[in-house]
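ASSEMBLY PREDICTION REQUEST
Request ID: AP-0331
Submitted by: J.K., bench scientist
Number of chains: two
Total residues: 796
Priority: normal
Notes: Please return the full assembly, not individual chains.
Input sequences:
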Amino acid sequence: MSGVCFPKGFSAAGVKAGIKVSGNLDLALLCSKEPAKCFAAFTKNQVQAAPVLYDKEVLSKQNVISAIIVNSGNANACTGDQGYADAVSMAELAEKELKLGKHSVLVGSTGVIGNKLPIEKIQAAIPELVKNLGVENENSELFAKAICTTDTVIKTACISVQTSMGEVRFGGSCKGSGMIHPNMATMLAYITTDLKLSEDFSAEFKSLVNESFNAITVDGDMSTNDTCILLANGQSGVFLADLSAAEQANVRNALFELMKYLALEIVKDGEGATKRIEIEVCGARSKTEAMQIAKSIATSNLVKCAFFGEDPNWGRIVSSAGASGIAFDASKISLYFEDVQIVKNGMPLEIPKSQLLKIVKQKEYKISLNLHIGDSKASVFTCDLSYDYVKINAEYTT
Amino acid sequence: MSGVCFPKGFSAAGVKAGIKVSGNLDLALLCSKEPAKCFAAFTKNQVQAAPVLYDKEVLSKQNVISAIIVNSGNANACTGDQGYADAVSMAELAEKELKLGKHSVLVGSTGVIGNKLPIEKIQAAIPELVKNLGVENENSELFAKAICTTDTVIKTACISVQTSMGEVRFGGSCKGSGMIHPNMATMLAYITTDLKLSEDFSAEFKSLVNESFNAITVDGDMSTNDTCILLANGQSGVFLADLSAAEQANVRNALFELMKYLALEIVKDGEGATKRIEIEVCGARSKTEAMQIAKSIATSNLVKCAFFGEDPNWGRIVSSAGASGIAFDASKISLYFEDVQIVKNGMPLEIPKSQLLKIVKQKEYKISLNLHIGDSKASVFTCDLSYDYVKINAEYTT
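STATUS: Completed
Returned structure:
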């Protein structure tokens, strides 16, 4: 299985620094042979962890990065000035060992909130971490394991596209299974590519993130450390701008598919989740409004409990759409479970229960709400709310 | 136990119209001897039930009301034009039987969404309903029972205030136990008083509603039928405006206490709730921002699961505050469980776990978050998220 090291010029490593009580892999490193263009999206939470603050500071100065060092087991969040100083040290220690210049390494942390980062353990482990850097196309799995916290499976993906100018590769790895324990929370996603990209790709990257990692919800909570980073080192020799429109579309689509796949892996791994449901809102005035309504439905406990109970409860869906704060005409809406229409002009149709039960008993299905007031649409991927979600979150103790 | 009929000049009734499958009381009537000033607040859900649309229409014409007829077992929501026509008939049939003029009766409905209102059953029951109107101070309990759906207890309250101009009485009744089944959802609240009020009280009524019924959350969902109505018939002969400032404050406070008490009864009756927690946000720039942050915390599944698990999980609270969309300086915040400070300047303090466990094991306690960026504050009352919430909502089938 390959991931972040699939594209040309990337190597990675994962070691045990002793940060996790479990003794599992907890320190990861991703390196690019050549400095890579960096595109990043961070949590919008007002409470931001030190590594997020540090990465934003670095990227505000320049956007070429050679490596990323990530620890799991400690979020370095709510740790004040000391926490920020530790994030800086973590980057500088890696830069020193990799013989790289200042501000060439980003940092990431995920794990317990409010505990001082054990920087001395990280310092002690960095030499071995660097020594273990695999050759290209190796260690993707070690990297994927070392960034995990409560994840039940590692999450990696890779895809390659043939272009008239040669092969382009994308790889990636992410962690997160819903903000299960905010003390063990966070979604981290690291995407690599050997495609050559120019800075103006950043706007597009943001919209790709919005339609993938920002279009999933497990429990609606947003962590203090959420981060998604794309490193493009150009080693394929293929420059996106040089490709034909059709080929550019192919390449972009490959990247989107990879990001969406990784995002959905997180939903599947959602706390106690037994189902994965796509909530599509179409016929909206704008993509933003469609997304807000879809999120209102996707995060409603009543809707999520109905999913778990395999109950085709259209009333909960319509009502949570109405509670989204977005204006629409309730007498115009239609609602579909897969291809079966259940609401027309805001009123229920006579559908045999058995037909709907066949749909809601599936592990994965799609619900589509059409507002009939515009041409925009958006989708959110969510999971059900089960006994296990409550169990895990109630029994976990700080 | 007295409620809506406690103030002078109000009578009520509750009968079985056969709308509920259970055969319980399902048709309620509240009458004022003299036409009463009406103040009302309705759901902000985009999907509004026919009775809500009808009442808003009537109150847009004038604000003096003589009676309210309410049915339970059917929400008359998502019922289109037919539903609106049925709401009109329900009002007109009551007006006819009570020998009242057009637009003197408001209607309320709560129950299953998407089913046609059985208006013929209501029509058949109205004569008995009117015949059973109790004398003053009677039947408050029958009214309270007849408006209930999934409530496990009836919710009534009454309070009286002595003023230099005589006694003023307030009574009230509400139903709702969280939007448990949106097909059996809704919060309805009817408040009565023999105080004389002028129209300019409406702004104050709205703010009282915001700090009582709009300051509670069971599962964060908002129904298609939510309604809160205050009828003031002036039968006490006491006009609020004639009282001294101090007496006005007393009277206002009595009304607020009654509304808050009824609102908290709904939280206590929240689906599967085992605890009731006040989330106070202070030191905010504005009441609105304080309220938005408090609601973000009060509706977080992670926070609510921690309440259920009796886990003093400050990280979840701080993180959900940060996710509220309101800007604040995370390095300034302090957090208290009752009077025990657990976070200072955004960082955790060393508090003996035993001290915190004593607090979170209580049935009711208060959490206070101080942003230290202003002087405004707001409180939201919430309950925990338990296995039973999931059980009830997953096993209920449309």
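REVIEWER COMMENTS: Residues 180-184 of chain B have pLDDT under 50 and may be disordered.
SIGN-OFF: pending second reviewer
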